[in-house]
Glypican-6-like isoform X2
Amino acid sequence: MRVTGVLVKSLIEGKPALISEIKLEARKNEVIKKTELSVCFNGLEPGRTCCSGAMEEMYMKLSEGMFTDHLEKANYQLTQLIKNGIENFENDVLALIKNSEKNTMGHLSEIYRIPWSEHHKPVNKLFASLFDYVKQGQVEIPIIVNEFFDQLLPLVFRYAVNDPTVTNYKESLNDCLIKLRRHLHPQPFGTFSRKMAHELSTVLWAARSYLHALSVVSDTINATNHLDTEETCKKGITQMLFCSQCKGHVGVKPCKDFCQDVMHSCFSKQMEVSYEWDEIVRLLRQLTRYMVGPSGLESVLKNIDRVISDGIMNAMDKAPEFTPTILVTCKETGSAPENQKVSVQSPLVPNNKMLISDQEPVSSISLKDQATQLLLSLLNIHGVYRNITSSICVDFNVSQSPTHCWNGSHVAQYQQITSKYHSPNIRVSFVNDRNIMSLKDKLLHIQQNLISRTAEDDQMQNDAYVYQGSGASMNTYRDDEDFFAGSGSGSGYTPKNVHPDSSASDGFTIDSTPSTNQFAPKPNGNSSARKSEKSSVMVK
């Protein structure tokens, strides 16, 4: 028999005319047989019933279907919220990356006279890799940034530094410059390459983790749709909604607290992951601090072209110092005789109006607003499987009277017990469910990764580099530019303990508390090993 929504609603409201629609034999005021009814009769007291065993069985099936429908409806709303949030966030990040790529190409062509055909490939590879990383691709940000500046040096040297009237540049010089870039001193691009890698690594990791965490949460929600409804849940709903009719109390509404207890028992499995769920939401809130403000995702992505431009200007300024090394080291390529006079063209004077190009609007809503809206929605579903019980009880049209309501056995006050998960007539199974344990493990894993990485990032911020120096003796951090990837050997320079922009506000009023107040950095067993494996190659 197919049970319609109208029939279910009518049964909840206790309309006796619809009992016949179930096409089951209803009896009037017959003595209850202990063996026939298992839910609407406790067997401890004599009584009469209007229901048969077949009707009670049908009520059980109705109860299971009603619970499943409510669960799937609630889960669908949550997954749609998260799905839309993921899509909007990805689109905003892609738009920012595309806009920055366009501006970077414009600067290289218009300001530094590098042909589009020469710089298009390395620039496109850089920005495509950035978005691929956000989309969970196997990309190492420091590596792709290093490779980009390696490819950029020959272009800058040829078109912005070298004087073609004095030094004959040959194509064979390209490979030499690419290999030599990280060994030059002073560094052609100064500390701007490291600054760019560090900032991108920080904010894009946050964006990547943000999307991954949302995906895991969405998967967790979908997985709860496939959990079996406990027998105790079906009996509890039947007792709450239908047993009153078996005793002739047509139209009486269930007690509100009784409904709460029944729903808590029904969601006992889902509530097993509630703590891990809430922790993920809290950590997502912490991740938003990387996405807004002067050092946030939107700002960093918009300023990539400016950082690259600053690096090129540094190369033009320092060219007289590193060009002799290039000519001597790469002499076998035929770029210039060993005793040739070194000459570089006068540095280009960029047009400020060109540098501050009119950027096309990325979207009508900024990334900050998108993050704020999604965060507020996530905060609203904090404790979702605890809060959902109240909304379901509203749908069940429970009684607002604490005394004149159906308490499961009589029309009287419901004696709510202390524990929110127990009722005298409702038993909750605490047997470990494999699916639930798997969901908990998945949530716990990503939770630990977020906490660990955030703590590491805070420590890295405390050991931050000095990005800019003055004069000939730039204050630099001599590493192999793996940016804490842990490779290399030998000993290196220990950076000064400087925290850049430590006083800057992120402009995000929902939660601007630094994560160091939220997370205690955990000892890293590899930290000492990493410190002892600094590369002897000087790269900046």
